Amino acid sequence: QVQLVESGGGLVQPGGSLRLSCAASGSIRVIYTMGWYRQAPGKQRELVAAITRGGLTNYADSVKGRFGISGDNAKNTWFLQMSSLKPEDTAVYYCYAEMVVATRREYWGQGTQVIVSS
């Protein structure tokens, strides 16, 4: 059974930083893409950042220059470094991965809350 476990969310003041982590465990054969989505109250879930196994990255326009995604393929772990946080970054952040276990599909974490407020 595959599990994605997030950590690192919390309350931070505007302008502050947080680092989210996601660790995947289980009978994983290969991970193709790792990333983060977020969902704010009353809004649709949106892609924040993603990184491929080869290191290619993709960011939402709203976080470019402020967030950085990185991954450790050997440990099936990836990170989202968030800086210069704004109140509009407040959301539940979900890690996800496109991987092969039995077949190729997406897996999701349970979500971690990030609140940016003074």
How would you characterize the overall build of this protein?
The model has no long low-confidence stretch (mean pLDDT 95). It is built from no helices and eleven strands. Strand 4 and strand 5 (46-52) form a beta hairpin. Strands 2, 4, 5, 6, 9, 10 and 11 form a seven-stranded mixed sheet that branches. It is an all-beta fold and 118 residues long. The protein is globular.
- Helix tally equals 0
Helix content: under 10%
Sequence stretches where pLDDT stays below 50 over 5 or more residues:
none
DSSP strand tally: 11
Order of helices and strands: EEEEEEEEEEE
Determine the structural class based on helices, strands and strand pairing: mainly beta
- Our measurement of the CA-to-CA distance between the termini, rounded to an integer number of angstroms, reads 40 Å
Task: Detail the topology: elements first, then pairings.
Elements: E1 3-7, E2 10-12, E3 18-25, E4 30-39, E5 46-52, E6 57-59, E7 67-72, E8 77-82, E9 91-100, E10 104-108, E11 112-116
Parallel strand pairs: 2-11
Antiparallel strand pairs: 1-3, 3-8, 4-5, 4-9, 5-6, 7-8, 9-10, 9-11
Offer a concise description of the structure:
With 118 residues, the protein is an all-beta fold.
Features of the shown structure:
seven-stranded mixed β-sheet, globular, 118 residues, mainly beta
